[in-house]
Amino acid sequence: MASAAQKSQPFGPSDRLYAAIGDFLADHRLSVDPVNYAFAHRVLSQPKGPLAVSVARLTDGGVRLTSRDIEDMGGPVIAPGATVERSEEADDTPAESPNATMQALVARTQMQVEDFADTVAGLRAETQVFGRDLLAGADAIRSASGEAVEDITRLATTMLDRVQAAEARLAAATVEAEALRVELEAARDDARRDPLTGLANRRAFEDAFAEESAAGTSICVALCDIDHFKSVNDRFGHAVGDRVLKVIAQALREACGDHLVARYGGEEFAILFTGVPIEDAVTTLDSARGAVAAKRYRLRETDAPLGAVTFSGGVSAYVDRDVMGSVMGRADRLLYAAKADGRNMIKADGEKSQQSARDTPEKS
After folding, report:
1. Quick one: residue 64, left, alpha or beta (phi over 0 = left, psi -120 to 50 = alpha)?
2. Rounded Cα distance, 102 and 97, in Å
């Protein structure tokens, strides 16, 4: 019976690593949660890595790790084989934004949970095999006779009950880990969205641009800016300014369909047009501009007229060997050319500005 169980559970490198992780957590009296497990996995799977060296230095002399130590040493997850080079001017590098920090935290935690879930799933499969072996052994023993056989049968049955209980606990842990994985995916999606407008944020836009350009997709980039937005905030307050931002966001979302619309910063929006010529991109964006300019808005609280709300835009096409900075720079220059020429218009590479005379507001 024991030999059958041993054959079904070979003690290979992954088993040794799993056992070492358990010993590591026990030695430092750390709870078996995804964060601690993933930390121990990183230390023990890369024994000569910078994290393992830091842990060895900190625990020299029998000092135990604490949760605070793990938090302090957590840092970004480093892929196996990667190296980190520190610039001499690193102290002058601006700190990451809170959103970037949140992105890194969500990504790291998700990797930890996935690793933990995979380990739990593997352990559950092993216990199922072990349980079947025990059951088969118990059935064989029942066919014999004698008190010794009865004792062994009773012991095997007890062991089987324990294995089944362990399977139930592992199944519950697997469900919890999967639920947490889903929650983390939702949190990561939230971290890539602008909370006010619900649009993609700048980071999501830049990632999408990198992905589409790497795939060789035809790309046009548009930058839009609300005209005289500062005066809206100054005259009516930031609450009204936020409503104006939502109006523009909704108009762009409806007009641009499947193309990615992002709030790029402040009152500026960016659109990533894919798979269409620049003429179609300009036409689409101008339809949103016209729809916004044609409306007349009123204050919710007093019903007083807010007046016309307009935006200007610049559209540039991605060309071979372009980089994001260059195409965004061209779109930005076209945007400010539209502002300089009177606002409420769209300018594009090699195209005349788009503007309907009927919806041109009076200049403020």
Report:
1. beta
2. 9
Q: Which residue in 267, 279, 351, 362 is the catalytic one?
A: 267
* CA torsion, ordered 152, 158, 164, 166, to nearest 10 deg: -120
The total of other beta-carbon atoms located within 10 Å of residue 247's CB is: 17
pLDDT in tens, 142-155: 665 566 566 667 76
Question: Which strand ranges, in their side-by-side order, compose the sheet holding 260-265?
Answer: 260-265, 268-274, 219-226, 311-317, 346-348, 351-354
Give pLDDT tens digits for 192-207.
899 999 999 999 999 9
Please, are residues 261 and 252 in contact by the beta-carbon 8 Å criterion? yes
Angle at CA of residue 316, ends 311 and 319, nearest 5°: 165
Q: Phi/psi at 305 (nearest 5 deg)?
A: -70, 135
Read off the tokens for 32: 């078996």
- Catalytic (active site) residue 267: yes
Specify the pTM. 0.54
Token pair 């070492």: residue: 20
Q: For the beta carbon of residue 99, count every other beta carbon within 10 angstroms.
A: 15
